[in-house]
From TrEMBL:
Start and end residues of each FAD dependent oxidoreductase domain: 3-364
Protein's organism: Seohaeicola saemankumensis
Keywords annotated in UniProt: FAD, Flavoprotein, Oxidoreductase
Span of the signal peptide: none
Name of the protein: FAD-dependent oxidoreductase
Needed cofactors: FAD
Length: 381
């Protein structure tokens, strides 16, 4: 039986690895990152970056469970691929101690017995002197298995292991698929391939492929990269990843100094609150080619400076990405028919737990059921 995994991003690459290492015949279909994004006519992905926060703590039990399962496999993926993508710098999640967000976070911590430090007041200030927190803040500092991952390198690692285990890697763009009497005909920009089963893990581009669209909402997102000189990066060497809850319910995030492919060191800030919906594949292409929202980048940079008084920034620029949401706020992990399954919708949380989401998608492609926890919707925000 040939299983086609459509989408060579974070979830699809993980699914291909799990299937190939399980001894199954796998085709992973998806183009690599384009070199010239502004002129690229095809599809894109949001893992074209060097930093994503990882942590087990999450106020929504589904995401905590999926993250714990993925984090537990990080070191083995690194060992099997020879690629390092995980940086255990720790993660801080902070907000008003009496807020529902923080209360739910503490409930998940207690339920799953997740080790973390509870920091308040002068102790919090002393631990992280480069951050400024409001009075009444409670910070949960997770050190074990938390910090940040390199999503580009994680995808490379998954694909390398899948190929070593016998997976066929096709750098094609899938245009659609049709059922045949014996399987599926998958139409790509390079021709047609046949498979017995298909798992679609194409993120915001999934509805371009599926015969019947899923109820996905794709948002345009902007992040800002703040360049640091070597001295400033050294001053912040002990900085963890940070997520904080604003009084208005927004939860911006900040990553510690990371070296990017251009050789420069950046702090990355996200938390775009401008909800621009991308309604079709052409909208998504145009957004990636356009390079992001400069006004949102300025807003995010101002938030960083307010959180980190005295921060010295050399230059800054913005980057575009997208987030794909489902109505349930958990991924669409479903069998759509006897030969077709989907694993899409990271809901802004999928990078850190992509390996487990890929594993669950692989289970579906094999005709197996999912555990109860993976079918329970997250709590409303």
């Amino acid at each position: 039986m040939v299983i086609a995994v459509i989408g060579a991003g974070m979830i699809g690459a993980a699914a291909a690895r799990h299937l190939a290492q399980g001894g199954h015949q796998v085709m992973l279909i998806g183009p690599p990152e384009p070199q010239d994004k502004a002129a690229h006519p095809g599809v894109f992905a949001s893992h074209y970056d060097e930093g994503r926060i990882t942590r087990a703590l999450d106020p929504w039990p589904f995401w905590s469970r999926a993250s714990q399962a993925s984090i537990a496999r990080y070191h083995q993926i690194e060992a099997d691929s020879g690629l390092r993508f995980f940086h255990e710098t720790g993660t801080v999640m902070a907000g008003a101690e009496d807020s529902p967000y923080i209360r739910r976070l503490c409930e998940v911590r207690d339920q799953d017995n997740l080790p973390c430090d509870m920091l308040r007041g002068p102790v919090l200030t002393a631990r992280f002197p480069f951050f400024r927190f409001d009075p009444g803040t409670l910070a949960l500092h997770e050190t074990q298995g938390a910090g940040h991952i390199n999503p580009r390198t994680l995808v490379r690692a998954q694909i390398r292991i899948a190929a070593q285990a016998g997976a066929r890697i096709l750098p094609d763009t899938v245009l659609g698929l049709d059922e045949t009497p014996t399987g599926l005909r998958i139409r790509t920009d390079q021709g047609e391939v046949l498979a017995n089963q298909a798992l679609v893990a194409a993120g915001g581009f999934a509805n371009m492929i599926l015969p019947d669209p899923l109820p996905l909402t794709v948002y345009a997102r902007t992040v800002v990269l703040l360049e640091l000189d070597p001295q400033e990066a050294g001053r912040l060497a002990a900085m963890p990843s940070l997520i904080w809850l604003e009084p208005d319910g927004n939860d911006p995030y900040l990553l510690p100094p990371i070296r990017y492919p251009d050789g420069r060191i950046y702090l990355k800030m996200g938390g775009d609150t401008v909800d621009v919906i991308l309604r079709d594949t052409q909208d998504i292409r145009d957004w990636f080619r356009g390079g992001g929202n400069v006004a949102v980048g300025r807003m995010l940079a101002d938030q960083v400076r307010a959180r980190m008084p005295g921060l010295r920034v050399a230059t800054s620029h913005v980057q575009p990405c997208v987030t794909t949401f489902t109505p349930q706020n958990i991924p669409a992990l479903e069998r759509l028919g006897p030969r077709l399954s989907v694993a899409v919708g990271g809901c802004g949380r999928g990078a850190k737990c992509s390996d487990e989401l890929g594993r669950l998608g692989a289970e579906l492609a094999l005709g197996r059921g999912l555990p109860d926890w993976a079918q329970q919707a997250a709590l409303p925000s």
